[in-house]
Input
Amino acid sequence: RKRNSFRMTNQLRIFLETAGITLPQPTIQQCAEFCHALLEENQKINLVSRSITEKELLLKHVVDSIMGFFVLAPASIQNLKNAIDVGSGGGIPGLILAILTPHISWTLLDATQKKMHACQNIALKLGLKNVVCITGRSETLAHAKTFRESFDLATVRAVAKLPVILEYCLPFVRLHGSVLCYKGTAALTET
Output
């Protein structure tokens, strides 16, 4: 496993550098450890495709999550105190972003309790102290006093069409907050 971890860490570093992103080696290593923990939990509950390769996991999920996050200006990232990942599923992008930003308190939200249990296990394995996993429906929790307009940032990936995503996420975000939607090119035509 140690050799496999080294290979995945090295692959991830190369993929990130190719994308123009440089991260500290411990951060890259922890992202690779996330991949191992995710694949381990994936044996118990379907979090990502069971047939996914390491390369696909790194490129489609980890690198994509990191690249999307760096759309935000570095100054705004430093000013973030808390964030919510809506429809977190297997912790993508929430757990990956929690690795990158230990100064941000992350809430991972998903309607499936087994997925949130798996995310909590992964967070514990990685030693992430800035993550809380909550089971619930965004359309309900967004109106609860403890969650409404409580976050600097909401992230969402592969959940629904853009208008629906905004309906789910905007109630969580405080005034002058942001919603970061991970969408493919289909988003350009969604209304």
Notes: The mean pLDDT is 91. The CA atoms of residues 119 and 179 lie 21 Å apart.
